[in-house]
Amino acid sequence: MNGVFDLGGTDGLGPVVVVDDEPVFRAEWEKPMFTMFPACFRAGYFGVDSFRHGMEKMDPAVYLKAPYYEHWLYSIENHAIAAGAIDPAELDRRTEYYLANPDAPLPEHEQSEELIEFVNAVVPAGATAIRETDKVARFRAGDVVTVTDVSPFGHTRRARYVRGKTGTVVAHHGSFIYPDTAGNGLGEDPEHVYTVKFAAEELWGAGYADPNSSVYFDVWDPYIEFAPEGSTTEGAE
């Protein structure tokens, strides 16, 4: 779906502010929030795509003002409630208590050596999204393709800035979990993934982009179709 979270950004909000030497965590509460992601992932509350979709459901005005890890908190809370791991009324009571008593100690909990081992393995290396499929790859390197210009309801990785744009397939990576199904509760449904090279001017327009630059974007098979006969792509090699 379309929103302020789109991969390519949103028009009208001004330039992206780059902070020199920005810390990994801006506040102490963000540190445990980072560790909650692999823990809840391990517990089966969500996959990566449904986790992302959970953040996309935030109120746009709140999303734009919230720090990065508050997006994570929103998605984790809602997935944990949906899984039955958190009672909404208890969450409200606990929140009110710690707002009134910010220095109160956190509840004690038992450490899980199995969970610690999982987190130590997944955080540095990630969890693979590679999956086997019987589907045949429709495209190969050198094919000229166009990203279909649709605005799906729900989660997608088909960024708005590449929709309707034409580029050249430069690599085929095999098959992976399909975000448009996995993120919307419809199963993994693996699809082939390709890297497509777009001329910067194709994406941003002549006069707005370096004519010698290109952008490489990974797409799932259903995102693209063969470009109309006679279509060409230009850009940096």
UniProtKB/TrEMBL annotation:
Highest taxon in the source lineage: Bacteria
Keywords: Lyase
Class of enzymatic activity (EC top level): lyase
Positions of the Nitrile hydratase beta subunit-like N-terminal domain: 1-111
InterPro entries tied to this protein: CN_hydtase_beta-like_N, CN_hydtase_beta_C, CN_hydtase_beta_dom_C, Elect_transpt_acc-like_dom_sf, Nitrile_hydratase_bsu
Domain Nitrile hydratase beta subunit: 130-225
GO molecular function, one term: transition metal ion binding
Reaction it catalyzes: an aliphatic primary amide = an aliphatic nitrile + H2O
SUPFAM superfamilies reported for this sequence: Electron transport accessory proteins
Gene3D superfamilies for the chain: 2.30.30.50, Nitrile hydratase, beta subunit (1.10.472.20)
EC number(s) stated in the UniProt entry for this protein: 4.2.1.84
Function: NHase catalyzes the hydration of various nitrile compounds to the corresponding amides.
Family recorded in the similarity comment: Belongs to the nitrile hydratase subunit beta family.
Record protein name field: Nitrile hydratase subunit beta
